[in-house]
DNA sequence: CTTTTAGTGCAACTCGATTGCAAAGATTAT
DNA sequence: ATAATCTTTGCAATCGAGTTGCACTAAAAG
Protein backbone atom coordinates (compact mmCIF):
# COMPACT_ATOMS: atom_id res chain seq x y z
CA UNK A 1 0.00 0.00 0.00
CA UNK A 2 1.41 3.37 -0.98
CA UNK A 3 1.36 6.37 1.32
CA UNK A 4 -0.40 9.59 0.38
CA UNK A 5 2.92 11.28 -0.23
CA UNK A 6 4.10 8.56 -2.58
CA UNK A 7 0.89 8.63 -4.58
CA UNK A 8 0.98 12.41 -4.94
CA UNK A 9 4.60 12.27 -6.00
CA UNK A 10 4.01 9.54 -8.57
CA UNK A 11 1.03 11.40 -10.02
CA UNK A 12 2.95 14.66 -9.97
CA UNK A 13 0.51 16.52 -7.79
CA UNK A 14 1.94 18.96 -5.34
CA UNK A 15 1.52 17.94 -1.74
CA UNK A 16 -0.48 20.24 0.50
CA UNK A 17 -2.18 19.81 3.85
CA UNK A 18 -5.65 19.56 2.36
CA UNK A 19 -4.57 17.11 -0.31
CA UNK A 20 -2.88 14.88 2.21
CA UNK A 21 -5.81 14.61 4.56
CA UNK A 22 -8.35 14.15 1.76
CA UNK A 23 -6.31 11.40 0.16
CA UNK A 24 -5.64 9.75 3.49
CA UNK A 25 -9.35 9.72 4.22
CA UNK A 26 -10.14 8.17 0.86
CA UNK A 27 -7.48 5.53 1.34
CA UNK A 28 -8.84 4.63 4.76
CA UNK A 29 -12.38 3.99 3.54
CA UNK A 30 -13.43 0.82 1.84
CA UNK A 31 -16.49 2.57 0.37
CA UNK A 32 -16.59 5.37 -2.17
CA UNK A 33 -17.05 8.72 -0.46
CA UNK A 34 -19.19 11.70 -1.33
CA UNK A 35 -18.07 15.28 -0.92
CA UNK A 36 -20.31 15.48 2.12
CA UNK A 37 -18.84 12.32 3.62
CA UNK A 38 -15.39 13.82 3.36
CA UNK A 39 -16.52 17.20 4.62
CA UNK A 40 -18.07 15.58 7.69
CA UNK A 41 -14.98 13.51 8.37
CA UNK A 42 -12.60 16.45 8.01
CA UNK A 43 -14.35 18.96 10.21
CA UNK A 44 -11.95 21.84 9.79
CA UNK A 45 -11.43 21.74 6.06
CA UNK A 46 -13.53 23.86 3.78
CA UNK A 47 -15.95 22.23 1.39
CA UNK A 48 -14.77 24.11 -1.66
CA UNK A 49 -11.17 23.23 -0.91
CA UNK A 50 -12.11 19.58 -0.72
CA UNK A 51 -14.13 19.96 -3.90
CA UNK A 52 -11.22 21.45 -5.80
CA UNK A 53 -8.89 18.85 -4.38
CA UNK A 54 -11.14 16.10 -5.67
CA UNK A 55 -11.20 17.72 -9.12
CA UNK A 56 -7.43 17.89 -9.09
CA UNK A 57 -7.17 14.25 -8.04
CA UNK A 58 -9.58 13.21 -10.73
CA UNK A 59 -7.74 15.10 -13.45
CA UNK A 60 -4.53 13.44 -12.37
CA UNK A 61 -6.05 9.96 -12.22
CA UNK A 62 -5.58 9.54 -8.50
CA UNK A 63 -9.27 8.93 -7.92
CA UNK A 64 -12.28 8.19 -10.08
CA UNK A 65 -15.79 9.46 -9.62
CA UNK A 66 -18.94 7.41 -9.56
CA UNK A 67 -22.48 8.48 -10.27
CA UNK A 68 -24.39 5.90 -8.31
CA UNK A 69 -27.82 7.41 -8.61
CA UNK A 70 -27.90 8.49 -4.98
CA UNK A 71 -27.75 12.09 -6.15
CA UNK A 72 -24.26 12.59 -4.85
CA UNK A 73 -21.11 11.94 -6.83
CA UNK A 74 -18.80 9.59 -4.99
CA UNK A 75 -15.08 9.22 -5.21
CA UNK A 76 -12.74 6.30 -4.76
CA UNK A 77 -9.01 5.92 -5.05
CA UNK A 78 -8.04 4.19 -8.25
CA UNK A 79 -6.60 0.72 -7.90
CA UNK A 80 -2.86 0.61 -8.51
CA UNK A 81 -2.16 0.72 -12.18
CA UNK A 82 -5.61 2.08 -13.00
CA UNK A 83 -5.60 4.63 -15.78
CA UNK A 84 -9.33 5.24 -15.57
CA UNK A 85 -9.44 3.94 -19.12
CA UNK A 86 -12.26 1.87 -20.55
CA UNK A 87 -9.91 -1.06 -19.99
CA UNK A 88 -10.03 -0.44 -16.26
CA UNK A 89 -13.80 -0.70 -16.06
CA UNK A 90 -15.40 -2.16 -13.03
CA UNK A 91 -18.89 -2.36 -11.66
CA UNK A 92 -20.03 -0.45 -8.64
CA UNK A 93 -22.56 -1.66 -6.18
CA UNK A 94 -24.86 0.83 -4.49
CA UNK A 95 -26.71 -0.40 -1.44
CA UNK A 96 -30.17 1.12 -1.45
CA UNK A 97 -30.49 0.56 2.28
CA UNK A 98 -27.28 1.94 3.77
CA UNK A 99 -26.44 4.16 0.76
CA UNK A 100 -22.90 2.92 0.56
CA UNK A 101 -21.12 2.42 -2.72
CA UNK A 102 -18.67 -0.43 -3.25
CA UNK A 103 -16.20 -0.98 -6.05
CA UNK A 104 -16.59 -4.51 -7.38
CA UNK A 105 -13.12 -5.05 -8.70
CA UNK A 106 -13.59 -8.81 -8.89
CA UNK A 107 -16.63 -8.81 -11.16
CA UNK A 108 -15.40 -8.74 -14.74
CA UNK A 109 -17.03 -6.43 -17.22
CA UNK A 110 -17.48 -8.13 -20.57
CA UNK A 111 -16.21 -6.63 -23.78
CA UNK A 112 -18.71 -4.06 -24.91
CA UNK A 113 -19.75 -4.42 -28.52
CA UNK A 114 -21.15 -1.00 -29.28
CA UNK A 115 -23.22 -0.20 -32.35
CA UNK A 116 -21.29 0.58 -35.48
CA UNK A 117 -19.17 3.73 -35.31
CA UNK A 118 -19.81 4.39 -31.63
CA UNK A 119 -16.68 5.17 -29.69
CA UNK A 120 -16.22 4.08 -26.09
CA UNK A 121 -14.58 6.55 -23.74
CA UNK A 122 -15.58 5.44 -20.29
CA UNK A 123 -18.36 3.75 -18.45
CA UNK A 124 -20.29 4.07 -15.26
CA UNK A 125 -21.89 0.85 -14.28
CA UNK A 126 -23.83 0.80 -11.09
CA UNK A 127 -25.70 -2.17 -9.76
CA UNK A 128 -28.19 -1.43 -7.03
CA UNK A 129 -29.53 -3.67 -4.34
CA UNK A 130 -28.74 -4.73 -0.81
CA UNK A 131 -25.22 -5.31 0.44
CA UNK A 132 -24.36 -8.34 2.54
CA UNK A 133 -24.73 -6.39 5.73
CA UNK A 134 -28.20 -5.06 4.90
CA UNK A 135 -29.50 -8.28 3.27
CA UNK A 136 -30.54 -10.08 6.44
CA UNK B 1 -46.50 0.97 -32.04
CA UNK B 2 -49.08 1.77 -29.40
CA UNK B 3 -50.69 5.17 -29.03
CA UNK B 4 -50.40 7.20 -25.86
CA UNK B 5 -54.00 6.44 -24.98
CA UNK B 6 -53.50 2.71 -25.36
CA UNK B 7 -50.40 2.71 -23.20
CA UNK B 8 -52.07 4.70 -20.45
CA UNK B 9 -55.08 2.41 -20.53
CA UNK B 10 -52.95 -0.74 -20.38
CA UNK B 11 -50.92 0.62 -17.48
CA UNK B 12 -54.09 1.82 -15.75
CA UNK B 13 -53.03 5.45 -15.58
CA UNK B 14 -55.73 8.02 -16.01
CA UNK B 15 -55.45 10.01 -19.19
CA UNK B 16 -55.01 13.76 -18.85
CA UNK B 17 -53.81 16.50 -21.17
CA UNK B 18 -50.40 16.76 -19.54
CA UNK B 19 -49.87 13.01 -19.48
CA UNK B 20 -50.80 12.68 -23.12
CA UNK B 21 -48.41 15.33 -24.37
CA UNK B 22 -45.55 14.19 -22.15
CA UNK B 23 -45.93 10.59 -23.23
CA UNK B 24 -46.30 11.60 -26.86
CA UNK B 25 -43.12 13.61 -26.64
CA UNK B 26 -41.24 10.69 -25.11
CA UNK B 27 -42.53 8.33 -27.78
CA UNK B 28 -41.45 10.69 -30.52
CA UNK B 29 -37.86 10.91 -29.35
CA UNK B 30 -35.33 8.24 -30.01
CA UNK B 31 -33.15 9.54 -27.17
CA UNK B 32 -33.86 9.58 -23.46
CA UNK B 33 -35.16 12.96 -22.35
CA UNK B 34 -34.41 15.07 -19.30
CA UNK B 35 -37.03 17.05 -17.44
CA UNK B 36 -35.56 20.16 -19.01
CA UNK B 37 -35.72 18.66 -22.50
CA UNK B 38 -39.39 17.97 -22.03
CA UNK B 39 -40.05 21.35 -20.46
CA UNK B 40 -38.42 23.09 -23.40
CA UNK B 41 -40.37 21.05 -25.90
CA UNK B 42 -43.71 21.61 -24.19
CA UNK B 43 -43.57 25.34 -23.72
CA UNK B 44 -46.91 25.80 -21.99
CA UNK B 45 -46.77 22.97 -19.54
CA UNK B 46 -45.49 23.57 -16.03
CA UNK B 47 -42.27 21.94 -14.89
CA UNK B 48 -43.70 20.51 -11.69
CA UNK B 49 -46.62 19.02 -13.58
CA UNK B 50 -44.22 17.34 -15.97
CA UNK B 51 -42.14 16.23 -13.02
CA UNK B 52 -45.09 14.64 -11.27
CA UNK B 53 -46.22 13.08 -14.50
CA UNK B 54 -42.83 11.46 -14.93
CA UNK B 55 -42.97 10.13 -11.37
CA UNK B 56 -46.39 8.67 -12.07
CA UNK B 57 -45.18 7.09 -15.29
CA UNK B 58 -42.19 5.61 -13.57
CA UNK B 59 -44.24 4.14 -10.73
CA UNK B 60 -46.51 2.55 -13.28
CA UNK B 61 -43.68 1.16 -15.38
CA UNK B 62 -44.47 3.26 -18.43
CA UNK B 63 -41.03 4.80 -18.47
CA UNK B 64 -37.70 4.15 -16.78
CA UNK B 65 -35.22 6.68 -15.56
CA UNK B 66 -31.54 6.77 -16.33
CA UNK B 67 -28.73 8.38 -14.40
CA UNK B 68 -26.23 8.95 -17.16
CA UNK B 69 -23.78 11.07 -15.25
CA UNK B 70 -24.76 14.23 -17.10
CA UNK B 71 -26.24 15.54 -13.88
CA UNK B 72 -29.77 15.29 -15.17
CA UNK B 73 -31.99 12.25 -14.82
CA UNK B 74 -33.29 11.14 -18.18
CA UNK B 75 -36.40 9.23 -19.04
CA UNK B 76 -37.28 6.80 -21.78
CA UNK B 77 -40.37 4.82 -22.60
CA UNK B 78 -39.98 1.19 -21.63
CA UNK B 79 -39.78 -1.28 -24.48
CA UNK B 80 -42.93 -3.36 -24.83
CA UNK B 81 -42.96 -6.07 -22.23
CA UNK B 82 -40.40 -4.33 -20.04
CA UNK B 83 -41.09 -4.68 -16.34
CA UNK B 84 -38.13 -2.56 -15.31
CA UNK B 85 -36.90 -5.65 -13.49
CA UNK B 86 -33.25 -6.61 -13.18
CA UNK B 87 -34.08 -9.09 -15.94
CA UNK B 88 -34.86 -6.21 -18.29
CA UNK B 89 -31.43 -4.65 -17.90
CA UNK B 90 -29.91 -2.85 -20.78
CA UNK B 91 -26.98 -0.55 -21.28
CA UNK B 92 -27.32 3.12 -22.01
CA UNK B 93 -24.97 5.08 -24.13
CA UNK B 94 -24.29 8.69 -23.28
CA UNK B 95 -22.64 10.78 -25.97
CA UNK B 96 -20.24 13.19 -24.34
CA UNK B 97 -20.35 15.46 -27.36
CA UNK B 98 -24.05 15.92 -28.09
CA UNK B 99 -25.20 14.92 -24.57
CA UNK B 100 -27.77 12.52 -25.89
CA UNK B 101 -28.56 9.26 -24.18
CA UNK B 102 -29.43 6.14 -26.15
CA UNK B 103 -30.90 2.87 -24.94
CA UNK B 104 -28.79 -0.01 -26.24
CA UNK B 105 -31.42 -2.71 -26.28
CA UNK B 106 -29.34 -4.96 -28.52
CA UNK B 107 -26.28 -5.17 -26.30
CA UNK B 108 -26.78 -8.02 -23.86
CA UNK B 109 -25.93 -7.55 -20.22
CA UNK B 110 -24.20 -10.61 -18.80
CA UNK B 111 -25.40 -12.37 -15.71
CA UNK B 112 -24.07 -10.47 -12.75
CA UNK B 113 -22.36 -12.63 -10.20
CA UNK B 114 -22.43 -10.44 -7.14
CA UNK B 115 -20.38 -11.07 -4.01
CA UNK B 116 -21.86 -13.50 -1.53
CA UNK B 117 -25.11 -12.40 0.04
CA UNK B 118 -25.50 -9.26 -2.09
CA UNK B 119 -28.97 -8.86 -3.54
CA UNK B 120 -29.55 -7.35 -6.96
CA UNK B 121 -32.49 -4.98 -7.29
CA UNK B 122 -31.75 -2.96 -10.35
CA UNK B 123 -28.87 -1.63 -12.36
CA UNK B 124 -27.87 1.50 -14.16
CA UNK B 125 -25.20 0.91 -16.70
CA UNK B 126 -24.05 3.84 -18.71
CA UNK B 127 -21.35 3.72 -21.31
CA UNK B 128 -19.93 7.06 -22.35
CA UNK B 129 -18.27 8.05 -25.55
CA UNK B 130 -19.11 9.40 -28.96
CA UNK B 131 -22.20 8.39 -30.88
CA UNK B 132 -22.01 7.54 -34.57
CA UNK B 133 -23.06 11.04 -35.52
CA UNK B 134 -20.40 12.77 -33.43
CA UNK B 135 -17.62 10.26 -34.12
CA UNK B 136 -16.47 11.73 -37.44
C1' DC C 1 -76.17 18.81 -8.10
C1' DT C 2 -73.08 18.30 -4.34
C1' DT C 3 -69.22 16.21 -2.32
C1' DT C 4 -64.94 14.15 -2.72
C1' DT C 5 -60.73 13.02 -4.95
C1' DA C 6 -57.13 13.75 -8.35
C1' DG C 7 -54.39 16.80 -11.28
C1' DT C 8 -52.37 21.31 -12.37
C1' DG C 9 -49.80 25.78 -12.06
C1' DC C 10 -47.26 28.91 -9.47
C1' DA C 11 -43.93 30.15 -6.24
C1' DA C 12 -40.85 28.98 -2.94
C1' DC C 13 -37.44 26.07 -1.16
C1' DT C 14 -33.77 22.29 -0.71
C1' DC C 15 -29.40 20.74 -1.45
C1' DG C 16 -25.29 19.30 -4.04
C1' DA C 17 -22.24 21.48 -6.97
C1' DT C 18 -19.62 25.35 -8.43
C1' DT C 19 -17.46 30.02 -8.72
C1' DG C 20 -15.57 34.90 -7.49
C1' DC C 21 -12.64 36.96 -4.71
C1' DA C 22 -9.38 38.14 -1.37
C1' DA C 23 -6.06 36.35 2.01
C1' DA C 24 -2.41 33.04 2.91
C1' DG C 25 1.20 30.14 1.38
C1' DA C 26 4.61 28.54 -1.79
C1' DT C 27 7.76 29.29 -5.74
C1' DT C 28 10.68 31.86 -8.77
C1' DA C 29 13.27 35.73 -10.19
C1' DT C 30 16.06 39.73 -8.83
C1' DA D 1 16.94 37.77 1.55
C1' DT D 2 13.42 40.31 -0.81
C1' DA D 3 10.21 41.28 -4.24
C1' DA D 4 7.26 39.54 -7.74
C1' DT D 5 4.48 35.75 -9.28
C1' DC D 6 1.73 31.77 -9.11
C1' DT D 7 -0.96 28.38 -6.40
C1' DT D 8 -3.89 27.00 -2.81
C1' DT D 9 -7.24 27.93 0.60
C1' DG D 10 -11.49 29.71 3.03
C1' DC D 11 -15.59 32.22 2.90
C1' DA D 12 -19.65 33.73 0.87
C1' DA D 13 -22.52 33.81 -2.84
C1' DT D 14 -24.58 31.70 -6.74
C1' DC D 15 -26.43 28.04 -9.86
C1' DG D 16 -29.48 24.60 -11.22
C1' DA D 17 -31.96 20.20 -10.90
C1' DG D 18 -35.23 18.41 -8.11
C1' DT D 19 -38.99 18.77 -4.99
C1' DT D 20 -42.89 20.50 -2.13
C1' DG D 21 -46.86 23.48 -0.20
C1' DC D 22 -50.82 25.46 -1.45
C1' DA D 23 -54.66 27.18 -3.78
C1' DC D 24 -57.36 26.44 -7.86
C1' DT D 25 -59.51 23.60 -11.36
C1' DA D 26 -61.19 19.39 -13.34
C1' DA D 27 -62.88 14.90 -12.95
C1' DA D 28 -65.19 11.07 -10.55
C1' DA D 29 -68.31 9.40 -7.05
C1' DG D 30 -72.33 9.78 -4.38
From TrEMBL, chains A, B:
Q: Where does Zn(2+) bind?
A: 95, 98, 131, 134
For whether the record's keyword set contains Ribosomal protein, the answer is no
Q: Which InterPro entries match?
A: FUR (IPR002481), Fur_C (IPR043135), WH-like_DNA-bd_sf (IPR036388), WH_DNA-bd_sf (IPR036390)
Q: For this protein, what does the record note about how its cofactor is bound? A: Binds 1 zinc ion per subunit.
UniProt keywords, alphabetically: DNA-binding, Metal-binding, Repressor, Transcription, Transcription regulation, Zinc
Q: One Pfam annotation, family name? A: FUR
In its UniProt record, a GO molecular function of this protein is:
DNA-binding transcription factor activity
Q: Which GO terms describe its biological process?
A: negative regulation of DNA-templated transcription; regulation of secondary metabolite biosynthetic process
Q: Which domain of life is it from?
A: Bacteria
Cofactors demanded by this protein: Zn(2+)
Q: Record's PANTHER family? A: HYDROGEN PEROXIDE SENSITIVE REPRESSOR, ZINC UPTAKE REGULATION PROTEIN
Q: In which family does this protein belong, per the annotation?
A: Belongs to the Fur family.
Q: What is this protein called?
A: Fur family ferric uptake transcriptional regulator
Amino acid sequence: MQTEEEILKIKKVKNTAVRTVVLRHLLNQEKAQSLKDIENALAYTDRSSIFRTLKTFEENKIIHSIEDGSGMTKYAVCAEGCNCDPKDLHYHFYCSNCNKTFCLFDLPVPKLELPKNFKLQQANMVVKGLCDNCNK
